[in-house]
User: Fold Shikimate dehydrogenase (NADP(+)) from Devosia neptuniae.
Amino acid sequence: MTIKAFVIGHPIAHSRSPLIHGTWIAEHGIDGSYEAIDVAPAELPGFFERLRAGEFAGGNVTIPHKEAVFALCDSVDPLARTIGAVNTLVARDGKVHGTNTDYLGFLGNLDVGAPDWSSGKKPAIVLGAGGAARAILVALKSRGVPVILLNRTRSNADHLAAEIGGDVRAGELADFDAAAPSAGLVVNTTSIGMHGSRFDGFNLDLLPSDALVTDIVYAPLVTPLLADARARGLRIVDGLGMLLHQAVPGFEAWFGIRPLVTKDLRTRIQATL
Ligand code: ATR
Assistant:
C-alpha cells in the first residue's frame, strides 16, 4: 500500500517540503507520496479525522496551524510543548502524535557544518526572543550550552529566559559587544537579514577567532550577518541546512528509512530560493 504523507498550511504553495521529501522518496524507491495540502483553519478538525482514519502516515504542519494542532493531537511531545509549536504529526493506530523537529534540525545542521561546535561549552549569543528562538534555546539546553539571549525588547528576552530555564542570561542587543569575547557561537533567530536588512553596531571583531556564526534565515543563503562574519575570517553555517535536517525525523517516522541530507539535495533546494 502506498504510504502517504503531507504538509498542511494555508496558504501552502511556497513550501519546499514536497521537493525535499519527494527527492528522498525517489532516492529510496519508496512506494509513497508527499503532497502539499491547503487546509483552512476551519477545515483542520476534519483533516485530523482523515488522519485518524489511516489515510496518511503523518505529515508536516506549517503556518498558520503550528499552535492550533495542539488541541487536536492525541498526544504531544513535551519538547514541542516547551517550544510552543508542533511541526510534525505521526498517525498510528487511530491516534495522532505531535512533535517539533526544528530543534533537531538546528542541531543536525551545526553537527554537520561544524562538528566541534559545542565541545568548549562556551556561551552562545542568541539574537531574538520570538517563536524561532524557543526551538534554538531548547536545542542549546539539550547540549548543555549556556545562552546569552539578546533581544530588541528586553522584557521578551526576560520572559523567554525564565520560561526555558537552565543557563540563560537575558539582555539587550546593545549588550552584544560585552558578550562577544566569551562567546563560541552566535545565532540569529530574527527575520533581520531577509531583504538585505542587517544588525547595526555589532562589533564582530570582538568574537574569538574560532567562534561560529549561524543564521536561521536561509533566503538569502548568505545573510549580511554571515557575510560580515565570513569577511572577518569567522566560521559560518547557513540556515538552509536547518530546513533540510528538520525534515529527517518526520521522513523516518512515516517511511521507515532515515534519509541523508546530501550536497545534491542542498543544491536542488538552493536552486528554488
Ligand atoms: P518568529 O516566530 O519567526 O521568531 P516573532 O515571534 O515575531 O517571529 O519574533 C521576532 C523576533 O525578531 C523578536 O525577538 C523580535 O524582537 P522584539 O521582541 O523586540 O519584537 C525580533 N525582531 C524583529 N524585527 C526586528 C528588528 N527590526 N530589529 C530587532 N529585532 C527584531
User: Anything to note?
Assistant: The pocket of 2'-monophosphoadenosine-5'-diphosphate is lined by residues 128-133, 151-153, 156, 189-192 (CB under 6 Å). The chain has a mean pLDDT of 96.
